Amino acid sequence: MSAQPKQRRGLRLLYFVTTGVIAFWMAVTGTAAVLGADFLVERITHLGYPASFALLLGVAKLYELAAVTLPVPNRLREWAYAGSTFETLAAAYAYAAFGAPLGDIVVPFVILAVVQTSFWTWIATRKTPAPVPTLIVPDESGSRDFDREKVEDETFVKLYKTLHIDKNTQPIEQAIEEGFVGPEQDVFVLEADGEAIGITLRTLAYHHLAQGTLGETPFLVSFCAVCNAGINFDARIDGQPSTFSVGGVHAGTMIMKDDATGSLWDHLTGECRWGPHKGKSLDIIGSLRIVLAGDLLAESPSLPLARPRLKLWQKLVRRMQYGHTWRMLPEGKFYPGFRESFEFHDPRLPELEMGVGIWSGRHAVFYPLEKIRQGEGVLDQQFGTEIRVTWDTDRNLPIVTTGSLKNPPHHVFTRWYGFAQKFPGCKVY
Questions:
Q1: Residue pair 422/268 in contact by the 8 Å Cβ criterion
Q2: How many whole angstroms separate alpha carbon 219 and alpha carbon 191?
Q3: How far apart are CA 21 and CA 349, in angstroms?
């Protein structure tokens, strides 16, 4: 592993540690100030400030807490760091002017050092240099080496627990009536063995993976919220049902891990890239069909919809992840570490360009959204059949139709960078 990735890993670790320290400090002091804790009010009034100043100070600290821990615009986070800097300097000045002991004066400077360390490591990790524009085309077999060191964010993604669908379902009709899902929200429909189940985009964007059984088939559905791509797999390895979890970020997208061996699997192609099962692939049941909840209600009101029971903090994380999907944040967003996990860079299209990727085996074609939206869409001859991709303006979704093939190609509505990483050298329409 090169020195640069090691250095960046160290910076990220330092960032998370210092940010955790100041987040704890902001949460404790901010809550105490808002609640008017006696020890804090007494100290504030002792320094000559009115007791009402405690509430203002508490609200400011809780704002700072939210701004440094939640996905907010960079400018708001910068203001929060600036506010913390002014607060600590003002506190040190107030103690010195009052003639407080040296220890009381030094403490704000210690806090300031932690705040500044958190800020500058955040700056260093979010401003990642773009990789050298290099187009890598695989050999005829389509095989690629896998660099285990490029798997990033293994600690962070532990937030995202696989959704195991058992009895936590309800008919789509009831889910809409109770307000769990709105008529204009996207729902992924999974189908196998003549049965079907729905999972909202909001739900799957948080969990990343969902497992259950349709008929006699154990399924595994994946979805990466940043690259906006996923697929429905048969969850059996060598004929045995297996369980999976999020294994980290690789090639700028989520990578899966089977719980039994820790092998790492591509979340879109189903190929095992590293571990005891390397060289094997999960069977793909089918592409994810996206349907608006309102249309699904008219089509099949009794269709079961996954409805997980989440804690409050999980609901907050779910909202954050949903904000990265194409409808909420079309311009996209990269976390620190995503770029370092890229296997290469394909400059033929902008990284975050949306479009439809279609593939069969290693043969793949990407249809940019700009082309799909023009006129009547695109009509192409690929995979030995006719491919038509059109844009449904009412549903604001692409529609993919293929000729009558026994094994039709798979497709995803995704971002260019993610699809290019999965299929190096793929064709661009």
A1: yes
A2: 9
A3: 41
